[in-house]
Amino acid sequence: MAVNDNPGREATFSPLEVMTDAPVIPVIVLEDVEHAVPLARALVAGGIRMLEVTLRTPVALACMERIALEVPEAVTGAGTVRSAADAEAARRAGARFAVSPGYTSAVGRACRDLGLPLLPGVATGSEIMAAAEDGYTELKFFPAMQAGGLAMLKAWAGPFTDVRFCPTGGVTPLNAREFLALPNVVCVGGSWLCPVESVRSGDWSRITQLARDAATLRR
Predict the structure, then answer these.
(1) Are 105 and 2 contacting, i.e. CB atoms less than 8 angstroms apart?
(2) How many domains does the chain have?
């Protein structure tokens, strides 16, 4: 895979800017490099440009690179970042933000050193405190439904008044508005924008419509 030898040339974003760009950040799992560019174009056409491509498949980095090079209006992000090596590989492939399923100081330092905005994953108060100690106050609440859902976020609003969340995991078009109505929720993450069957069949118009519907959700 070719690498991005000058990753700092693009416009940079803060974690909060990543979260406020649209109400939903799509969680993308790609199995075929040839799907990467048309999928990204379909999402952008629907008004969603912050794209979290998860590091869950062998072709994920190649997909990020294709999107970064061929769909400049998209902002390519890396999901499932679990180590400093993941962060570095993603940055070299063109990722402009990172999302992790949990948080360690090693991942936090690596992303900061790389100039890669990070949305760390948290599921407990202790994890929120650890991330905040390292300067991270825009966080991914994951897995949201399994870890307490709306009730947990409401409980955290008291002790963590300076923290903003992107709940991900079990968020759907049916409950997204409830999450977005909470004052400490900036956006949500969801895989429903990229149904597996639509990606495999190349039904890009359906994905554009799903993105368009998601972009109109009210915070």
Answers:
(1) no
(2) 1
Q: Is residue 160 part of a domain?
A: yes
Q: Give the separation between CA 61 and CA 63, rounded to whole angstroms.
A: 5
Residue 4: inside a domain: no
pLDDT at 2 over 70: no
Q: Does a structural domain hold residue 190?
A: yes
Distance CA 189, CA 166 (A): 6
Question: Is 135 a domain residue?
Answer: yes
| Residues labelled as active-site residues | 52, 140
pTM of this prediction?
A: 0.94
Would you say the C-alpha torsion 137, 108, 121, 29 has a positive or negative sign? positive
Cα dist from 155 to 16, 123, 140, 170, 215, whole Å: 21, 13, 16, 19, 27
Which tens digit of pLDDT belongs to each residue from 35-44? 999 999 999 9
CATH classification at residue 106: 3.20.20.70
Answer for the pair 33, 63: CB distance below 8 angstroms, yes or no: yes
Q: Per-residue pLDDT averaged across 79-103, rounded?
A: 98
Give the structural domain span for 115: 12-214
Which pair of structure tokens corresponds to residue 212?
A: 């368009």
Q: Can you name the residues that pair with 141 across neighbouring β-strands?
A: 122, 167
pLDDT given at position 10: 64
